[in-house]
């Protein structure tokens, strides 16, 4: 048994296999993170807003959790594999800035961009998009950014209040006049808060 353990340790520490193991570890961590994130979210949303038997609800929860975990694991595998290929085929033999963009582009298209998209995939992409927009906004007001120096302080102080107000104004308008365009889980939450309250006595809590 000790010999097997030593053999596995030598394989794991072999520098020639480091790139392969980085891909495997990326897939493992993507799967684990996806499961940790999706399971509690699906558990709460399904039991709050979905009807059906306990078995049906558990099936929905497990399906969403598996899909989230599998997709993040697949993306990590594709991304790290493409990065490895680009690095090894580049003239410099090392990672460069365009490599990350190209690898993310290929992974995003292969995992999240093709075919009919589930609500889980849409939520993941929208989550990433929102963080990208915020990061680019911060980048634009940094030294050397797109915003001229004389406007940076004004933009920094006022951008978030304007963004928050326009976001809520837009979502309330859409929900009131075009509810079919809103993502289902958001629409369920808004219906619970802004419609069902008018149909129930004040002290009655609906589960």
Summarize the structure.
This protein has 207 residues and is an all-alpha fold.
Q: How is this fold's topology laid out?
A:
Blueprint: H1 2-12, H2 18-49, H3 54-89, H4 97-113, H5 119-140, H6 149-177, H7 184-194
Helix/strand order = HHHHHHH
Low-confidence runs: none
How far apart the termini lie comes to 54 Å
Query: Taking Cα atoms only, what radius of gyration do you get, to the nearest Å?
Result: 23 Å
Helix content: over 70%
Beta fraction of the residues? Answer: under 5%
**What coarse outline follows from CA principal-axis ratios?**
flat
Tally of separate helices: 7
Please describe what this structure looks like.
The chain has 207 residues and is mainly α. Helix content is 76%, strand content 0%. The chain has helices at 2-12, 18-49, 54-89, 97-113, 119-140, 149-177, 184-194. α2 (18-49) runs antiparallel to α3 and α3 runs antiparallel to α4 (97-113). The chain is flat, with a radius of gyration of 23 Å. It starts with a helix and ends in a 13-residue tail after the last helix.
């Amino acid at each position: 048994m000790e010999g097997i353990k030593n053999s596995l340790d030598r394989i794991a520490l072999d520098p020639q296999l480091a790139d392969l193991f980085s891909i495997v570890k990326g897939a493992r961590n993507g799967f684990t993170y996806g499961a940790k994130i999706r399971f509690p979210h699906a558990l709460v949303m399904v039991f709050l807003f979905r009807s059906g038997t306990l078995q049906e609800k558990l099936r929905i929860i497990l399906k969403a959790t598996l899909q989230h975990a599998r997709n993040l694991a697949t993306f990590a595998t594709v991304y790290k594999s493409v990065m490895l290929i680009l690095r090894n085929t580049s003239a410099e033999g090392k990672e460069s800035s365009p490599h990350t963009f190209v690898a993310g582009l290929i992974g995003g298209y292969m995992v999240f961009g093709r075919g009919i998209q589930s609500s889980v995939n849409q939520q993941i992409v929208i989550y990433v998009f929102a963080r990208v927009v915020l990061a680019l906004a911060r980048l634009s007001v940094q030294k050397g950014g797109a915003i001229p120096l004389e406007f940076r302080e004004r933009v920094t102080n006022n951008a978030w209040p304007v963004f928050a107000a326009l976001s809520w104004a837009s979502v309330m308008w859409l929900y009131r006049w075009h509810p079919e365009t809103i993502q289902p889980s958001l629409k369920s939450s808004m219906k619970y808060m802004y419609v069902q309250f008018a149909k129930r006595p004040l002290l009655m809590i609906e589960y």
